[in-house]
Design goal:
The protein is mainly beta and 459 residues long. It has four helices and 34 strands. It is 4% helix and 44% strand. The strands form eight sheets. Strands 1, 13, 15, 18, 20 and 21 form a six-stranded mixed β-sheet that branches. The longest helix is centred in the C-terminal third of the chain and has 6 residues. The structure holds CU-O-CU linkage and copper (II) ion. CU-O-CU linkage (C2O) binds next to β7 and β33.
Length: 459
C-alpha cells in the first residue's frame, strides 16, 4: 500500500505544504452557531461558508475536569431552529438537547442555557440535534473532553476530529441535504476529508515521543477505516470509556459516525521521516494526519502504556434478570422491507418513499408518541440489534453506555454507538440507571431522519 498526499478525493487538490497546528483557542462561555466563512480547502480555492459554533470548524473545544459542571448558553444565530446534544455524556435528561423529546427547539434569535455535570472522564463531543443531517454536515459540532484526575503518562495530546464535506469547486457546501438517493443508499458521504477542519493536518513530533490521540468521527455517514504507520499504537478507550487493558493496534480500525477512539502512540519513525494516521480508502492509504519527525525524544522503546483510570459505572448489569428487547433494522436500497407503520398507519414502501421514509425499526418508521420500551430505574436490558438491511448502521443510545456482547455472550467493550455491518446482529446490555426519555437511533444522520429513530423511557 502506498501512502499518498491525496488528501481529498474528487477535487484533485494539490498537496499542500505542511503547517503547524494552530494554538488552541480559549473556550467561550457562549456557543453561537451561525454562518461563518472558513478555509477548508487549500489557499488556491475559495473559502467555504459553514455553520459553526465558533471561529472555525470543528467548534471550540470544551475541556473540563471529571465531575465538573458544564454551562453554555446557546444563542441561535442560524436561519433554522437548533439544539445541542452532548454526545456520550450520562447527562441530566433535561439537558440532552433533543427537540421534541427533552426540550423545545431553540428558534432563530432565541437562546437556551445548558448546565450539566459530566460524571465520566473521556473523549466526547457535542453537535446539533435538530435537522442534524443538515446542521452537522454544515459544521455544527465540536469536541467535549473530560479529563481524568490523573491522566496517562504521555508527552502530549491531540484531539483529532475527523469529518467529510460535500463541496463544490467553488468551495461551497453542496445543498442537497436529505436527497432521496443519499437517504436510501450510503448516506451523505463527502468528497473532501478533513481533520480538525483541514485537509493537510500535520503535527510535528519527535522520535520516541508518546502521545495521546483522541479521535472523533463527526461525519454524517462515513465510516472511517484507519491504520497507523511509523508508530506503535494502543487503543486505550472507546467512546470515552477506558479499556481494562490497552489493546495494540494491529489491524485497521473502523470508526462509525459518532464513535471515538483514544490511542496512545509511540513515534517510531526515523528523524526526518514521517509517521501517519492513515485513512484506508480502497487499496490506497492517504494521510489523514501526518506526523513529521523533527527530533528525538527517547531512544529506548517504552513499556506498554498503563490503562486509563476506569469510570465508575455503578452496579453492573444483572444478566440473569435482563429484560430482552429487540431492535430490527429494515429498509434502504436493496432491502427487503415491504412496508412499515408511520404516524400510526401502515404504509407500503412507495408511500413511505414519497414521505422520504426509507428505514424502519421493528416495522415502524420515524418517531412515535409511545416509547419502544418503558424501563424501571436500575433495570438491566439486553438489547438485540439486528441489521436486516444491505447497509451498515451505527446505533446510538442516549443517556447510558452499553456493553457489546460477543456472539458467545461474553462481555465486550463499553460503547455509546455500535457499528453493525449489513446483515449483522449483536446484543448489547445496559443498566437503565438514568431517568428520562432517551433517543435510540442510527447515527448515520440521514438514516435517522428517514426512519431510524425511536426512544426509551426510564421511569
Ligand atoms: Cu450524537 Cu442522538 O446523537
Ligand atoms: Cu443506520
Amino acid at each position: 500500500m502506498r501512502v499518498t498526499r491525496r488528501l481529498s478525493m474528487k477535487l484533485g487538490l494539490a498537496a499542500a505544504a505542511v503547517r503547524a497546528l494552530p494554538a488552541r483557542a480559549a473556550t467561550p462561555e457562549t456557543l453561537e452557531p451561525r454562518p461563518r466563512r472558513v478555509r477548508l480547502l487549500p489557499s488556491d480555492y475559495p473559502e467555504t461558508e459553514v455553520w459553526s459554533y465558533g471561529e472555525g470548524v470543528p467548534g471550540p473545544e470544551i475541556r473540563v475536569a471529571q465531575g465538573a459542571r458544564v454551562r453554555r448558553k446557546l444563542v441561535n444565530g442560524l436561519p433554522q431552529p437548533t439544539a445541542i446534544h452532548w454526545h456520550g455524556i450520562r447527562i441530566d435528561n433535561a439537558m440532552d438537547g433533543v427537540p421534541g423529546l427533552t426540550q423545545a427547539a431553540v428558534a432563530p434569535g432565541d437562546s437556551f442555557d445548558y448546565d450539566f455535570l459530566v460524571p465520566d472522564a473521556g473523549t466526547y463531543w457535542y453537535h446539533s440535534h435538530d435537522r442534524a443531517f443538515e446542521q452537522v454536515a454544515r459544521g455544527l459540532h465540536g469536541p467535549l473532553i473530560v479529563e481524568e484526575a490523573e491522566g496517562p503518562d504521555t508527552d502530549g495530546e491531540e484531539v483529532l476530529v475527523l469529518d467529510d464535506w460535500r463541496l463544490e469547486q467553488s468551495g461551497a457546501i453542496v445543498g442537497d441535504f436529505g436527497s432521496p438517493r443519499d437517504l436510501s443508499h450510503g448516506g451523505r458521504i463527502g468528497n473532501v476529508v478533513t481533520t480538525n477542519g483541514r485537509t493537510d493536518l500535520a503535527r510535528p513530533v519527535r522520535r520516541g515521543e508518546r502521545l495521546r490521540l483522541r479521535l472523533i468521527n463527526a461525519a454524517n455517514a462515513r465510516i472511517f477505516k484507519l491504520a497507523v504507520r511509523g508508530m506503535d499504537a494502543w487503543v486505550v478507550a472507546l467512546d470515552g470509556m477506558p479499556l481494562p487493558a490497552p489493546r495494540p493496534v494491529s489491524e485497521p480500525m473502523l470508526m462509525a459516525p459518532a464513535q471515538r477512539i483514544d490511542l496512545i502512540v509511540d513515534i517510531t519513525a526515523e528523524e526526518g521521516g514521517e509517521a501517519f494516521l492513515l485513512h484506508l480508502d480502497g487499496s490506497d492509504g492517504f494521510a489523514q494526519v501526518a506526523f513529521p519527525v523533527t527530533g528525538r525524544a527517547a531512544s529506548a522503546r517504552r513499556s506498554v502504556p498503563a490503562p486509563l483510570s476506569p469510570n465508575d459505572m455503578g452496579k453492573g448489569p444483572e444478566m440473569s434478570a435482563a429484560t430482552p428487547l429487540t431492535l430490527t433494522m429494515e429498509g434502504g436500497a436493496m432491502g427487503r422491507m415491504d412496508g412499515a407503520v408511520m404516524d400510526g398507519r401502515r404504509m407500503g414502501v412507495r408511500d413511505l418513499a414519497g414521505a422520504r421514509a426509507y428505514w424502519a425499526f421493528n416495522g415502524v418508521a420515524r418517531m412515535t408518541d409511545t416509547p419502544l420500551a418503558t424501563l424501571s430505574r436500575g433495570e438491566t436490558v439486553r438489547l438485540t440489534l439486528r441489521n436486516e438491511t444491505a447497509w451498515p448502521h451505527g446505533i446510538h443510545l442516549h443517556g447510558v453506555h452499553f456493553r457489546e456482547l460477543g456472539a458467545d455472550g461474553a462481555p465486550g467493550d463499553m460503547r455509546d454507538t455500535t457499528l453493525l455491518a449489513a446483515g449483522e446482529a449483536r446484543d448489547v446490555v445496559f443498566v437503565a440507571d438514568n431517568p428520562g426519555d432517551w433517543l435510540l437511533h442510527c447515527h448515520m444522520l440521514g438514516y435517522a431522519a428517514s426512519g431510524m429513530q425511536t426512544w426509551m423511557r426510564v421511569a
